[in-house]
Amino acid sequence: MSIGRNIKSVREERALTQEQVAEAVGVSFQAVSSWERDEYRPDTDKLIKLAEVLDVSISAIAEEKHGTFKTKEVIYNWEHMKTYVKTTARNFKMPNTLKAVDYAVEAHEGQKRKRSHTPYIYHPLNLACHALAMNIVEDDVIAACLLHDVVEDCGRTLDELPVDDDTKELVRLLTHGDTTDENREEVMDAYYAEILKNPKAALIKCLDRCHNLTTMSWGLSRERVYRMIKETEEYYPKLIKSIKATTEYNNAYWLLQYQIESMLDIYKRLM
Questions:
Q1: pLDDT tens readout for residues 63-112
Q2: Which residues span the domain enclosing 146?
Q3: In terms of CB atoms within 10 Å, which of 15, 82, 162, 222 comes out highest?
Q4: Which is the catalytic residue, given 153, 169, 194, 261?
């Protein structure tokens, strides 16, 4: 695709009009229109500003694309994942997980993953399936995977959760309050320090980060992607070390470390 088609494609993907882009860049909408028709090319300073406004790399606009790929927002149907988790919970007699599945589905009803049409419940179900795939069949761990966002994102309280105290404690550790630019570092330092004390919470948080890393290319802005990379490099090596020190999680440790480090390397190269 040409530069003009690249600009138009990204602009439409961001649901922006030519007028909105023009105002943000500081040009007329006729200029944006002429760029998209490949009549003119933006000057270097305008190209830099355009990349900032559209929240993409300069190369995403300036490089000619010889083809495009079809992408998927999800790989598995969330209802199938729910059935798998419930069946496994029945087979292994996991009462907290059985209660947590339906509660999480109800709590997240209507919510979507960022910049997508994907039901939010796909995320906690993914964590639960990921853990089960690594032969982790601990009731409190799987239940906490399913409930880890309901207090933070659904307005529920710990007391409302239909699970035992051990599971509630994991959900508490995995929940943090709102942050601002001023207090974010302090809040996150305290948050990860508490998680680090509990290998089960560290395990769930790494599962959470694995899934978020796989979806952040379409769910987060470039600024947020950069922040997530920095945050992952700062906090997650210690969490991985905590998991490694827990004998029953030795296999999980290796897989999680490989997945996280591989995803980070991919994003760094693409950025």
A1: 766 555 666 767 789 999 999 999 999 999 999 999 999 999 999 999 99
A2: 78-270
A3: 82
A4: 153
Dmax over Cα atoms in the chain, in whole Å?
67
Per the prediction, the chain carries an average pLDDT of: 91
178-215: b or e for each residue (b if 16 or more CB lie within 10 Å)? eeeeeeeeeeeeebbeebbebbbbbbbbbbbbbbbbeb
- Per residue in 13-28, pLDDT (tens digit) is 888 999 999 999 999 9
Q: Are residues 228 and 122 both part of a single domain? A: yes
Let me know if 153 is a catalytic residue.
Answer: yes
Q: Buried b vs exposed e over 68-92: b needs ≥16 C-beta within 10 Å?
A: eeeeeebeeebeebbebbeebbeee
Give the model's confidence band at 219: pLDDT under 50 very low, under 70 low, under 90 confident, else very high. Answer: low
**This model's pTM is above 0.85:** no
Catalytic residue among 152, 164, 194, 261: 152
Same domain, 40 and 82: no
Helical packing angle, 122-133 and 95-107, nearest 10°: 150
Question: Are 119 and 240 within one domain?
Answer: yes
Q: Domains in the chain: how many in total?
A: 2
Position 1 scores a pLDDT of 66
152 is catalytic: yes
